[in-house]
Amino acid sequence: MRHRHPARLGTAVLALALTAVGCASSDGGSASDDKASGRETNVTSCGRKLSFDGPPERAVALDQSSTEVLLELGLEDRMAGTSNLKTKIAPEYKAAYDKVKVLSPKILTSEQLRAATPDFALGGFTDYFTKDRVGTREELADLDLPTFVSAVDCPEQNPAGAGKDAGKKAGEEPKSPFDLLFQDYEDLGRIFGVEKRAAKLVKDQRATLGKAAKTADKVKGEPSVVWLYSVYGDTPYVAGKSAIPSEMSRTVGAKNAFDDLDEDWPAVTWEQIAKRDPDFIVIGDLSERGKPGDSAADKLKAMRANPVMSKLAAVEKKRFVEIPGTEMDPSVRTVSALPRLTAGMKDLGYVR
């Protein structure tokens, strides 16, 4: 989700804070499985062209999603740090995660990024790269720090892919969010020289995606669903048309109740949710982030306390599916949400 809580560091501070970036030294082992040393690699990330003479050795991840993608690719020894933990690290990544320095449990600042002396920074959303956070991508490029943003956050710039498929005819339809996510894996595989690992990851996740898609043939009707990510104060944030949960809903034969809002995670009201009367609600658990309204328990409490929501059939009949909030973001765990979703729909009686 795109939360805007600026660290309010100016451009001048950023320039001072990152003077050491270009002086990064390696302290990690090699994770490359098929890259020839010294071979130049070129990719395009959200409209910005990146060139590498060799695999990065001190990568900094600006969010949990990016962290777990790198861990899945076996790149923990190439990481100078991680930040912005939203929920518990998946058990399969815990041992590798414990080897990586946590620069901040929250959103990283420019000073914290500088202290890590990175040679590569990546995040799931462009909103991490602002003047009052770690700095704009242009500012960081001027300091010789390449930055990578998930292709899912800029689908309009990826109609044919920014990696090996680049060069297809302009005007082609944008890829699906899952295709863009798989493109991230392939591009990061090329950048770090772990193409084989990335290819296996894409193959495995496409298989999981295909299995989930078969559920659509067994779904009764087209149940509507609200994906509840955050609650700030008394304001709920839900998945809009361009958020990846909309694609997950379509994959399993459901319909995102806010698919008409052309945003990722719009702020709505409880009254708007009640008016759309969803058949069930997916609740994201973001307990590790630690803000009021982040945990699944907090969200349930808020809905039951609201005089309009408490009378909603989905709330009265406890039609809820709970998943880790990070699985609602574009990440290596997004596909993991699909089996949880289909199992929950089956328990609620929507799957024959």
Describe the structure.
The protein is α/β, with parallel strands linked by helices and 352 residues long. It has 2 domains: 11-209, 3-Layer(aba) Sandwich (Rossmann fold); 219-347, Rossmann fold. It is 30% helix and 15% strand. The chain contains 12 helices and 12 strands. It has helices spanning 11-17, 64-72, 94-97, 110-115, 137-142, 177-192, 195-213, 244-251, 270-276, 296-305, 313-316, 337-347; strands at 41-45, 48-52, 59-61, 79-83, 102-104, 120-123, 147-149, 224-232, 235-238, 255-256, 280-285, 320-324. The strands form 3 sheets. The chain has a 5-stranded parallel sheet with strand order 5-4-3-6-7. Helix 6 (177-192) runs antiparallel to helix 7 (195-213). The protein is globular and about 60 Å long.
Main β-sheet, spatial strand arrangement: 5-4-3-6-7
Instruction: Sketch the major β-sheet.
Output: 5 strands, parallel
What's the helical proportion of residues? 25-40%
CATH superfamily of the largest domain: Nitrogenase molybdenum iron protein domain
Instruction: Count every beta strand, where a strand is a DSSP E run of 2 or more residues.
Output: 12
**What count of domains describes the coordinates?**
2
Number of helices: 12
Stated plainly, the CATH topology of the largest domain is called Rossmann fold
Write down the overall geometry: globular
How would you state the average pLDDT, rounded? Answer: 86
Low-confidence stretches: 1-30, 160-170
- For the record, the CATH architecture of the largest domain stands as 3-Layer(aba) Sandwich
Structural class: alpha/beta
Distance between the termini: 33 Å
The share of residues in extended strands comes to 15-25%
CATH structural class of the largest domain: Alpha Beta
The radius of gyration over CA amounts to: 20 Å
The SSE string, one letter per element, is: HEEEHEHEHEHEHHEEHEHEHHEH
Domain Fe/B12 periplasmic-binding: 58-352
Family: Belongs to the bacterial solute-binding protein 8 family.
Pfam families: Peripla_BP_2 (PF01497)
Signal peptide: 1-26
